[in-house]
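[recover] target loaded
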């Protein structure tokens, strides 16, 4: 068997956002938010479109939005590319999901907590070694929680998860491994297949079950993601090269060509061209 990449927008929504597969989403959220405990017994998958209550406020679309049996709202986003402004978008979507609960004139006590769950295929917090991190409002100096616990930001950073298949122990481990590695697997690992919801997730992710149109959509998304990653790598390389050239220019009258080459990483030929261009 071959499985679709759960990290793509299309696949993530198909696996976790289908009304017929709510048991998959319940298991996943229990694993990520509640350490594998069965805190969530049921949920309602909502329209991911968040229309504004006030004219002129920006419309937003989420990957998945769900209302839990405890009246909490969970908004979920799978993010593969680290685009500019992404961290602000997370906060904006969480605040909006919280605010749009009330109609005009409704009492603020009717507001229910919102959890913004974000899974990233890149590191957002390089200074933290945790795979899952959680942020809430606290007093700046004393780190005391705000009086209510109504908005929480939860992040799962996939690159920080390094467990191998034989090292998987918890439900949380298994779901994160699924997200990160399902595309590279050819069979459902016995260690993961013993969880009914994960077994079902693999069945949904089986490429053989997709229509031609769905496979084309998936391929287009994967090509776009790879193109964007390549563009980012190219931009970084160009920036590094530009910096090296700038440093080399300042050293032309100070050091010999070989030393400048060792210092900047530029070739002798590139340094000679800089001299000729002066």
């Amino acid at each position: 068997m071959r499985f679709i990449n759960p990290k793509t927008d299309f696949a993530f929504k198909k696996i976790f956002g289908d009304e017929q597969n709510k048991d998959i989403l319940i298991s996943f959220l229990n694993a990520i938010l509640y350490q594998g405990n069965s805190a969530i017994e049921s949920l309602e998958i909502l329209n991911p479109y968040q229309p504004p209550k006030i004219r002129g406020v920006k419309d937003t679309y989420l990957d998945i939005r769900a209302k839990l049996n405890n009246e909490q709202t969970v908004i979920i986003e799978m993010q593969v590319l680290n685009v500019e402004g992404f961290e602000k978008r997370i906060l904006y979507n969480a605040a909006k999901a919280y605010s749009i609960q009330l109609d005009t004139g409704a009492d603020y006590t009717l507001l229910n907590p919102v959890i913004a769950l974000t899974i990233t295929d890149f590191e957002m917090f390089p200074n933290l070694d945790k795979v899952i991190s959680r942020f809430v409002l606290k007093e700046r100096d004393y780190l005391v929680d705000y009086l209510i616990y109504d908005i929480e930001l939860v992040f799962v950073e996939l690159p920080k998860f390094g467990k191998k298949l034989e090292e998987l122990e918890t439900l949380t481990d298994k779901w994160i491994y699924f997200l990160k590695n399902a595309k590279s697997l050819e069979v459902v690992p016995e260690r993961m297949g013993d969880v009914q919801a994960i077994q079902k997730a693999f069945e949904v992710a089986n490429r053989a079950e997709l229509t031609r149109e769905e496979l084309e959509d998936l391929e287009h998304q994967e090509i776009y993601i790879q193109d964007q990653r390549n563009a980012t790598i190219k931009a970084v390389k160009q920036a590094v090269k530009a910096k090296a050239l700038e440093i080399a220019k300042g050293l032309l009258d100070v050091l010999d060509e070989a030393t400048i080459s060792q210092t900047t990483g530029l070739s002798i030929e590139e340094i000679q061209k800089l001299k000729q261009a002066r």
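[recover] notes: Residues 126 and 160 are 9 Å apart (CA to CA).
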